[in-house]
């Protein structure tokens, strides 16, 4: 069976980069000021390291489920962890192309009984030349059904 993928675009807009930088408490001028960013040899302001989580607002749970089919029971789902692996930070003015897939899906015995399921979504982001920018991983944990 072929592996399922979900493709999308993530515009890196100056205003959204600034909003995100403020929301996560950044104060480095490379996130806000084009001249400061260019003085550091950057083409424009750069997005803070976790900026690509904004894809979550773009891709609904229903769309993710329909295309990737994890079939999670979201009443029992917890956020497990996130990881970002960078080649470089995204900069304002570019449009990243993203490809999401399920990279891991396994179960293990819970400490209080029952099985817990771990599903890791991998989103690979490339620039318009197809060069890797970053890969983001986030893991959801479906807790065990009541065992009592």
Description of the molecule:
There is one protein chain. By secondary structure, this protein is α+β, with helices and mostly antiparallel strands. The chain has a single domain (6-142), classed as Roll (Thiol Ester Dehydrase, Chain A). The protein is built from 4 helices and 5 strands; from the N terminus they run E-H-H-H-H-E-E-E-E. The protein has a 5-stranded antiparallel β-sheet. The protein is elongated and about 55 Å long. The termini are far apart. The mean pLDDT is 90.
Task: Please summarize what this structure is.
The protein is α+β, with helices and mostly antiparallel strands and 148 residues long. The protein has 4 helices and 5 strands.
CA-based gyration radius: 18 Å
Strand content range: 35-45%
| Tertiary shape | elongated
- The first-level CATH class name: Alpha Beta
Per-chain topology:
Layout: E1 6-11, H1 14-23, H2 34-39, H3 55-58, H4 61-68, E2 77-86, E3 95-109, E4 115-126, E5 132-142
Antiparallel strand pairs: 1-3, 2-5, 3-4, 4-5
Attribute tags:
148 residues; single chain; alpha+beta; five-stranded antiparallel beta sheet; elongated; Thiol Ester Dehydrase, Chain A
């Amino acid at each position: 069976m072929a592996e399922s993928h979900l493709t999308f675009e993530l515009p890196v807009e100056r205003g959204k980069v600034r909003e995100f930088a403020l929301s996560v408490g950044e104060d480095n001028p490379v996130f806000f000021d084009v001249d400061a960013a260019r003085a550091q040899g950057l083409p424009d302001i750069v997005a803070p390291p976790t900026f690509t989580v904004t894809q979550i607002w773009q891709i609904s749970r229903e769309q993710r489920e329909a295309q990737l089919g994890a079939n999670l029971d979201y009443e029992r789902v917890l956020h497990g962890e996130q990881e970002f692996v960078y080649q470089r930070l995204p900069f304002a003015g570019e449009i990243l192309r993203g490809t999401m897939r399920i990279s891991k899906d396994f179960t293990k015995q819970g400490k209080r009984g029952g099985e817990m399921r771990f599903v890791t979504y991998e989103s690979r982001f490339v620039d318009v030349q197809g060069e890797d920018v970053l890969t983001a991983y986030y893991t959801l944990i479906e807790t065990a059904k009541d065992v009592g």
